[in-house]
Known about the structure:
The complex is a heterodimer.
Chain A: E1 4-6, E2 11-18, E3 22-24, E4 27-34, E5 37-40, E6 45-57, E7 60-62, E8 65-73, E9 78-80, E10 83-84, E11 87-90, E12 95-97, E13 100-101
Chain B: H1 3-15, E1 21-22, E2 26-34, E3 38-40, E4 43-56, E5 61-73, E6 76-78, E7 81-89, E8 94-96, E9 99-100, E10 103-106, E11 111-113, E12 116-117, H2 124-132, H3 136-144
Amino acid sequence: MANTVIGSTIVIDGEITGDEDLVIQGTVKGRVSLRENILVEESGVLEANVETATITIHGTVTGDVHATERAELKSNCRVVGDIRAPRVLIADGASFKGSVDMDA
Amino acid sequence: MPPVASRAPSTASASSDTSCVIGPKIVVRGALSGEEDLVVEGRVEGRVTLVGHLVIAPGGSALADIDATSVEVRGEVRGDIVASRSITIERGAVVAGNVRAPRVMIHDGAHFDGAIDMDVALPDGFAQGQARGRSPGRSSARAQS
């Protein structure tokens, strides 16, 4: 298992940095800075400013997201914050409040 | 990974064995807490509070104070470790800090620098003497009177 998985009962208050895929089932507060892919699962809560290559959100994200490739908001996700990414996908049923900047 | 396909299996495995992993190229700084088993193959700095089994894998490191049910060190830990059940320091591990647990195991080939507290049941008089800051002889005489 190469991925990093933050399990559903885990709470991280601080900062995550690194160079590999990250799956969030629990709670992460603070700052996340990756050069790979982030998957926020339905149980996942991300209260952080995020820098990443791609992010796929099924759960809850509060904070600004900067993705160098793609940000994908799936149905049933809740996102509050600004999104900056060249490709932003918002699925039917997603709930989002914030601004989108695709010029990045 | 394709999210829809991956969701069902990953959620299913979340409740079972070691599904929570901090991978080798990840650094976590700050406070990490939770109620499940955790494997650290990367780096954790700050504080770890876990109800569950914590493994610091070979190549993994923790610059952190650790409080967990049980801890197994195969990598490197700099900081104090408290476990309610056991602490195992395996061959090749490096630990610098104080450890406290009812069971502490240090295997051949491990490097450990620090103090160990196993909550040893001291002889009656000795324990009382320590608790009251008196010599063992005096306190046992007191107990008899």
